[in-house]
Amino acid sequence: MHALTPYPITPIGCFLGVVLTLLPLTSHIRKLGLGVWGFALWTATANLILFVNTILWHDNVKNTAPIWCDITTKLQFGANFGIAGSSSAVSFQLYKITHRRAFLETRRQRRRTIVCELLLIVVFPVLLMGIGIVVQPVRFLIMEELGCTQTYYSYVAYFTTYVATILLDLPCLILAPLTMRIFRRHRKEMNEFLSSGQGISRSKYNRLMIMTCLGVKLVPISFGIIVFHIVLGKKSPLNHPFISWKNVHYDGGGGFFPGSSLSSVLQTPASTWSTFPGIPFAVKLAEWFHVVVAILFFALFGTTPEMVKNYRSALWFVPERLGYKRVRTTDVETISDVAFNSNPDRNQRVLPRHSR
């Protein structure tokens, strides 16, 4: 076991990542858009795969689950595309809301929006997952502690992997500052719109705005990985020309992986990969990146008053079945939630007046 890869902290973290990502969806099934759902499901998928991998390949590099690896290596590859596309879908939605100061759409507009969002969230990531085989020299690579992953060969991989991620994340990079600029220029109109209850609340708008700003996180990471591979020079499989399909898939990636082909499985123990400069950091980034994303997602959508109420109900589920009763407290309203009226009727709630 590598010293920087503690066990079982990594699988525990990945499992919590799955739970923290899926938990907010139980309370917002009909309220969250496709972009938020796609973001959550892609993040949960990546964490679930790493949870299983870090258990199966703890202290070994045995090829114990080849079919699992064939499927999950593609899903791992597509997860970053899906997260980037989902963030862009949310940024498009927020930009339209802020630009129009309206939430309602016609049936035709809604259909067009759904098609565009599905393209970003599902179609483009799946398409890029398929294109990845063009620069895939081996079936998959098993790294001790990390599990099965994918490796790529030739300059083309820069475009099919990292540049593609940047392009999918580009709408966030462009639309997030534009949306904030429009909001500042029309602050009064936006405040009136968000207070009107026309489909989106101020709280939800702010959470989606933060999510859009966080969506650009993949851009600097992708640039950093590109620079890392460029610095490695010929030691990186990405810094070699794409000569032909045969050269990549049947000649061991141009000789970079001697004796291997598209049907080969490479196995790398921790004692080997930990000696290469930068690889331990890359392994830790792969293990914990999606866990951090899950924590940020939960902080945005898992801490709402509605979710807190659900947590309390869940905690009291067993005690109430055992006969214990909890005291039901009345909902505490803030000033922003109270509608003031100079002539309240008997059925309206009136704030208590304190004597001086």
What CATH architecture do you see? Up-down Bundle
Query: What count of structural domains?
Result: 1
Write down the CATH topology.
Answer: Rhopdopsin 7-helix transmembrane proteins
**Outline:** globular
Number of strands: 3
**Could you state the CATH homologous superfamily?**
Rhodopsin 7-helix transmembrane proteins
The helix content is 55-70%
Task: Look at the structure and give the mean pLDDT.
Answer: 82
User: What is the radius of gyration?
Assistant: 25 Å
Low-confidence regions:
330-356
| Structural class by SSE content | mainly alpha
Work out the strand percent: under 5%
| Distance N to C terminus | 69 Å
Please specify the SSE layout and strand pairing:
Layout: H1 9-22, H2 34-56, H3 66-100, H4 107-131, E1 140-143, E2 147-149, H5 156-185, H6 187-195, H7 202-214, H8 218-232, H9 245-249, E3 265-268, H10 270-273, H11 279-301, H12 305-315, H13 317-321
Parallel strand pairs: 1-3
Antiparallel strand pairs: 1-2
Helix pairs in contact: 1-2, 1-11, 2-3, 2-4, 2-11, 3-4, 3-5, 3-7, 5-8
